[in-house]
Every structure is written in structure tokens, then in C-alpha cells.
Amino acid sequence: MKRCVIYARYSSENQHETSIEAQVEACEKSAAQEGWIIINRYIDRAFSATNDNRPAFQEMIQDAKKQMFDYVLVHKLDRFSRDRYDKAYYKRELLKYGIQIVSVLERIDDSPEGVIMESLLDGLAEYYSKNIGREAMKGLIQRAKKGQHCGGIPPLGLDVDPETRLLVVNEEEAVIVREIFELYDKGYGYKAICSILNSKGYRTKAHVQRGGKGGPKIRTPFSPGSIYTILRNEKYIGTYVFNRSVSKYLAEDGKIRRNSNKSKPEEKIIKIENCFPAIIDKDLFYRVQAKLDARKHNHQAVAASCRAKEVYLVSGKIFCECGAKMFGRRNFAGRNKHKYLTYRCYDKNQKGPSVCKIKEIRKEYLEDWIVDVMFNQLFTEQNLQIFLKELNEQRKKKEGSYESTLEALKSNLRQVKSEIDNLLILAAKVVSESLADRLAELEQKKKYIQAEIKNLESKEPENVIDMDTFRNIVKNIKQYIVDDNMVLLKNVVQKFVDKVVVGEDTIEVIFTFSFLLYNKKTGYNEYEPLSLSENCICLGGGEATPRHIQQPTPWYIQSFKASRSEIYLRECKYIKTDTITKEEADKVSTS
């Protein structure tokens, strides 16, 4: 006797359980008529058939590989899949194990006409699904152009007005959002921010259901991923964004993938600025975006350096006098095939000496000269005094910002107290459940604001930073050389060196005064825009903001020149010269 399983499905929460019951009943009746034994029923509730991300469906495919049944019985073929690619792929997979798909309402044989009929039905099912999606998207786009919310949970700090469908600020949650941005701007990492927020009992807007279906919904704690998502969200500066994420894309392995972090082309994204009140000041938002971009670049650079056989301190910053970039090169020469490292012109290497006649330059001599200039001519007492002056000016601005935030909170508290007093007077005359709920809500808000005020007032004044502190920072950077930690030394050099130009006889290095974030607990960490957190101080000048907001001031840049002979005649004090043989180098690179 033949064995079969039933597969039933409906697409959305708006459909009813009776839809499943009707499908299963029809399949059971068909199986009885054929004389087949039903060994299992696979049910997917509220899952679309436009993809294969369905738990019961995948369970059925896994059971098929064990050859547990002979037929898959469905009410209609579109219950199995509405995507032609998925349908063909899984039909072929089932046929490998001798399993056929049978539709109760669409009896299709294996004749040539049956093949055409099945293809036509598959096409109609996919058309139906895509047409519904297109029409739905038209409606969503029209709503988006009006700045109306188009579904889903709004971001933390924002709610949806039930009448207008516009986003409005939730002031109680907005305080959390502001704290997240301010903490990151001060130099706190994702995990540190999560720890602070979760310790205060703050939660995200996402919910999890405890105890299965019907159980209570509980807000989830903050995680590094949720912090990153908040920091990147343009809605916090009042910019409405819709249709940004790609729901599906063709991956390199030929499979259809989903990735909400992959964006569509700019012309397809709907973006409306100043659509609703901003929670975050634009200067703060763009400052944070610059830090996030710099952090991403630093992590990629360090990862690449760790993978490389050699660490080239000025890779990406060094140019030939002809205008082409120079690249790090590993050479072996002489009778014993000694290794030596150089920077060579890319155009000369690719197109020959007729294009460029500039000679390559030894890596360790050039880098040692650059590091020597950085320590002895860039980090001078005079420059450190400039750093200190700028830092003090930034500190004054920051203290003024704290005072304005504190005053705004106190003003908000006075308003809430006044509203509570008015409602208490009204409650003495009228008994109302909604009035009691509003009073409870305001009392909670009052406690929340009082906690924020207490938190701000309890902040200790920041430690005074003097010249000795700056000298210790430079000393810590020099320790990387002592420890032979070339990866971290490269991170320092890459942030201070703007450009190196190699000429026929003269070498020029151009330094840019960047901002050096130094952690007093762990030592030098990474460069970021100015940060004044509890454990962090900065070296730098001006205000590090995205270029489209503010260009660096002229005193950022200093330039130094030397001839090739001067560089080669120097004794290397910082960078080791490498003269090991090819056999030794191969042994080191494979170990």
C-alpha cells in the first residue's frame, strides 16, 4: 500500500484556521479514494509560498530524504510553492527519492500536455503572488510619500499616531535613544552601552513571547546589534526612509538570499527630510556616523594586516611622483636569496620603465624615517600644547551641553508635575478610569525624568588632563615598537600620515593632525573624533566631523622632506631591517 503525507499552508495571520482544515479534509478524502495511508501532516501557518523559509516544509523535505513516503498530497499546487525556481528545485529533489507531488484539484499526468499544463499553473501562481505584491507596494509607496508609517514596529523613541499614521516622538523612549548616541560619541563601545542600558532596566521595542503561543510578550534587552541599528537610523534626525532594504538578491553561489542590510539603488529609496520632529541633533548624528565608518575601516585594515605576510605601515598612503600609487613588494636577491622589502610604483611595475623612471625605495628605511619624524617633529612640546588648548575648549563646550540638557529635563519635570496637580484637582470632582490611567502614566514619567536628572547631577567632573598625560600617550605608542607590534603601529601611522610622495631624489611625508583616542585603562585603542568619556582622552585639534559638514582647518597639516641619501644613511632606530634568506622566509610564512 502506498504511503503519503499531506502538506497544507496559508499565507497570513488574516486567514483562518478553517483554511487549513478545509485543505486537510480534501486531501484526506482524496487519499482514501486512492487507498493511500497518510503517515504525517505538515502544516505551515502564516508562511508565504514565495520562498522556502517554512519550518514544516523543510521538515517534510528532510523526511523525504529518509524515503518515509511515496506521495506529497496538496490541495492545490500553489500550496507547495508560488516560486517556479523553488517548485522545480524541490520537485526534482523529491523525484530523486521516488516521491511525486499530487494536487487534489489539479490532476496532471506525465503526458506532454500535462507538462505544459503544470508549467502554465506554476506561472499563473507566481503571477498571482507577484501581482498582489506589486499592488500592495503601490499602496505602500503612496503612503510613504506622505510620510506615513508603512507597517512593522516603529523604532525606539517613535510611535505611530493612530489617526494620521505619522511618526511621533515618544519622549520617555527618546531619552534612551539620546543616551545611546551620547555614550557612543563619548567613546563607549556597543557592549559597554548595552551594559549601562540593561542595568537601568531599559529595553528595546522588540518583543519575545514567553511560554509559547498565548504567553506574555516581554521586551528584549539591548544587544550590540540593536545598538548599531539605532545609531544608523536616519529617522532620529527626522528623515523618513522607505523601501531601502533588498528583501531578496542572487548570491554568488547562485542561490536566492535575504539580507536586510543590503540596500537598493538610491533612486528607488523614498527619503523625506524633516518629516517629523528629530530626536537627535544632526551634528551629533553625523559625528556618530563618521565614527562608525572609521571603526569599520579600522577593523578591516587590522584584519587585512593580520592576514598579510608583511605589514606595510604606509600602504594606501604612498604615491609615486608620476601620480600612480606605490605598493609593497617582497623581493629575493643575491646568491643566498636574501629577502628585502620595497615600495614600487604600480605603473612602472605594470607598464614598464618607459612610463616611470622613479626607483623603488626600501620599506624599512622609509618607514623608520617617517616614524622618527612623527615622534620627534610632529609630537613636539609646541604641538602638544596646541592639543591641550583645543581639548580644554572642547571640554567647555561639553560642560555647556550638560547644563542645557539638565535644564531641559528640569523644565520637563515642572510641566509633568503641573499636569499631575491639575489632574488631581479634576479627579476630586470626577471619577474616571481613563483619568486614573493618565495619572499613573504621568507618575511613571515623573520618576523617569527624576532618575535622569539624578544621573546627570551625580556625574563627577572629568579629570584634568595635563602635559604629562600627553607625554605618557606618546610613550605608550612607542611601546608598540618595543613590543614589535607592527599591526597596531600601522594603525597609528595610517591615522597621522595623510600622504607620502616618492620622487627621484626627494621624499615628502604629509601629516594630518587627527584625533587620537586613548583609553586610560587599556592604553592606546583607536582614532576617532574627539571623545571625552570617563576613561578616554584625546589628542587633536579642530572638530572631527564629516567633510560635507566642516573642512579641516589649515593647522591640521605639516609636511617634511628628505633626500633618498639622507634616508638610507640614517641608522634605523624603530623598524627592524629584514635580511633573512628565501628558505627562512618560506619557513616563517608557513609556520
Description:
The chain folds into 4 domains: 3-141, Resolvase, N-terminal catalytic domain (Rossmann fold, 3-Layer(aba) Sandwich); 158-300, Putative Large Serine Recombinase, Chain B, Domain 2 (Hect, E3 ligase catalytic domain fold); 308-382 and 467-590, no CATH class; 398-457. The model is unreliable at 249-257, 514-556 and 584-591 (pLDDT under 50). It starts with a strand and ends with a helix. Helix 7 packs across helix 8 and helix 14 crosses helix 15 (486-496). The chain contains 17 helices and 22 strands. It has a 4-stranded parallel beta sheet with strand order 2-1-3-4, with helices on both faces. Strands 13-17-18-22 form a 4-stranded mixed beta sheet. A hairpin with a 4-residue loop joins strand 14 and strand 15 (338-345). The longest helix has 47 residues, at 381-427. It is of the alpha+beta class and 591 residues long.
Number of helices: 17
Q: In which range does the helix fraction lie?
A: 40-55%
Strand content: 15-25%
Number of strands: 22
Give the helix/strand class: alpha+beta
Walk across the major sheet and give the strand order: 2-1-3-4
Structure described in brief:
This protein is α+β, with helices and mostly antiparallel strands and 591 residues long. It contains 17 helices and 22 strands. The two termini are 62 Å apart.
Question: What's the topology here?
Answer:
Layout: E1 3-9, H1 17-34, E2 37-44, H2 55-65, E3 71-74, H3 77-80, H4 84-96, E4 100-103, H5 112-145, E5 158-160, E6 167-169, H6 171-185, H7 190-199, E7 207-209, E8 217-219, H8 224-231, E9 240-242, E10 245-250, E11 256-263, E12 270-272, H9 282-307, E13 318-320, E14 326-333, E15 338-345, H10 346-351, E16 361-362, H11 363-378, H12 381-427, H13 433-457, H14 467-482, H15 486-496, E17 497-502, E18 506-512, E19 516-519, E20 523-527, E21 536-539, E22 557-563, H16 564-569, H17 582-590
